[in-house]
Write a structure and sequence with these properties.
This protein is an alpha/beta fold and about 425 residues long. Helices cover about 40% and strands about 20% of the residues. It has helices at about 1-25, 30, 50-70, 90-105, 115-130, 165-175, 195-210, 230-235, 245-260, 280, 310-320, 330-350, 355-360, and strands at about 35-40, 70-75, 75-85, 110, 135, 150-155, 185-190, 215-220, 240-245, 265-270, 290-295, 300-305, 305-310, 365-370, 370-375, 385-390, 395-400. Strands 8-7-9-10-11-16-17 form a seven-stranded mixed sheet, with helices on both faces. A three-stranded mixed sheet has the order 1-3-2. The longest helix has 23 residues, at about 1-25. The termini are far apart. Residues about 1-20 and about 25-30 have low confidence and may be disordered.
């Protein structure tokens, strides 16, 4: 019996080594490829560091997959992606300065985006000035795409879509119980940044459309560390829906203080649940919360490089075992998708010329493990829907939209 166990363990170990080799050892073909340099100023410290690291991991995972698979074929030449990173420290002015440095000193001609709408808003005028194509994965604010930029492209859905579907869910539940929609009360608390303010705009638009009441409409404190004053109002006004958007720190604060103050609201929804690891940090206190996500490993998306969404999840966790007991954050998945779009665009352009590349990016229409990617004239991805997951017994389950739902909504929340 001991010998059998030893053999099984060794077989499992050998299989793991083989998987790692298949994923990330450069073949002799890859070693002959020249470097194709991309640049990114990204938040590795400061308030956006958690998600900045997720994004960087997503970039690097895709780069290794592409390079291992033979690199990027441009005409009759082969290239391996390589990224020059600088830490923007979660500061917009520093992000802009570093982008200038990447372009003027490091001679980078192709850019990957930073983390957050605010950082993207800070550097987009720089990349536009120098006509540098930028495929970004982490700036969702709709306000990025009404400036007339020609070199900015985003693989993710824009922010006004993130939590608007929560209002639709609230309307459905009200109708099921025979309530008049005008009696449904909604509380909104968001960070004062472009991303969260766009979320607020989308939610308020849907509240108005359904004729509901907005009973709280407030900004979270600047440091995102205490929303107890807002939650005291929630207790007093007893809304049917509570919506919170404040990136990772705001999500963590919300879940912690909702539990501490014993807040009971039938529907609570927020952004950045996975990135804040609210399940790992708060356990059962997070149950029932609705979490907006750009991507989920249970979705039926797939492509030739990464395979299915679930295969991406499995391989990513193997390479980055710190995610093994968590849900892979969508920030990482969409970062990988951005790199994949670059590969596709370079190969269709057949040249390193940045204007020809920009035109190829604008014509992108491809299915990926992350979903379909097709850009509007303004540079937004118009082909992929947002998804809502509910934390149910410590697991993220897709509950909306109904076409993608794997589980029913648990309502009302405890």
């Amino acid at each position: 019996m001991q010998k059998l166990i030893y053999i099984c363990v060794m077989v499992g170990f050998a299989a793991s080594i083989m998987l790692f080799a298949l994923l990330f050892s450069k073949t002799s073909t890859a070693q002959k490829c020249e470097d194709l340099v991309l640049g990114s100023a990204i938040s590795l410290t400061g308030k956006y560091a958690t998600n900045g690291v997720h994004a960087q991991n997503g970039y690097e995972f895709a780069i290794q997959k592409i390079n291992q698979a033979g690199g990027v074929r441009v005409g009759d030449k082969c290239y391996n992606f390589k990224v020059v990173y600088y830490d923007d420290e979660s500061k917009g002015d520093r992000a802009a300065t570093l982008t200038e440095r990447l372009i003027n000193q490091d001679r980078v001609q192709y850019m990957l985006g930073p983390y957050s709408s605010g950082m993207t808003k800070a550097i987009a005028p720089v990349t536009e000035k120098y006509q540098i194509p930028m495929i970004e994965a982490e700036g969702a604010s709709r306000s990025l795409f009404n400036k007339g930029y020609k070199y900015l492209f985003a693989v993710l859905s824009t922010s006004e879509q993130y939590l608007a579907s929560v209002i639709t869910l609230a309307a459905e539940k009200a109708q099921e119980t025979g309530r008049d929609l005008s009696s449904v009360k909604v509380a909104v608390a968001v960070e004062n940044d472009p991303f969260s303010l766009d979320i607020r705009a989308g939610v308020l638009e849907d509240i108005k459309k359904f004729g509901m009441q907005t009973v709280i409409n407030e900004r979270l404190p600047r440091d995102l560390s205490d929303m107890s004053a807002i939650l005291t109002k929630v207790k007093l006004l007893r809304p049917d829906v509570l919506i919170v958007s404040g990136h990772s720190k705001g999500a963590a604060t919300a879940v912690r203080q909702i539990d501490e103050q014993h807040i009971k609201v039938p529907i609570i929804a927020m952004t950045h649940c996975e990135a804040a690891d609210v399940i790992g940090n708060f356990g059962v206190s997070a149950n029932g919360i609705l979490c907006a996500t750009q991507w989920a490993e249970s979705l039926t998306y797939e492509d030739p490089l990464f395979g299915s969404a679930s295969n991406y999840d499995k391989e990513f966790k193997f390479v980055y075992p710190e995610y093994a007991e968590k849900t892979v954050p969508y920030q990482a998945a969409q970062a990988s998708a951005a790199v994949y779009v670059y590969k596709d665009a370079f190969e269709r352009a057949g040249t390193l010329d940045k204007q020809a590349l920009r035109n190829a990016i604008s014509e992108t229409d491809m299915m990926t493990f992350y979903g379909r990617i097709r850009f509007s004239a303004e540079g937004m991805n118009i082909a992929k829907p947002m998804v809502l997951r509910q934390i149910q017994d410590g697991v993220y389950n897709v509950v909306a939209p109904s076409d993608f739902a794997s589980h029913k909504l648990n309502w009302p929340r405890r």
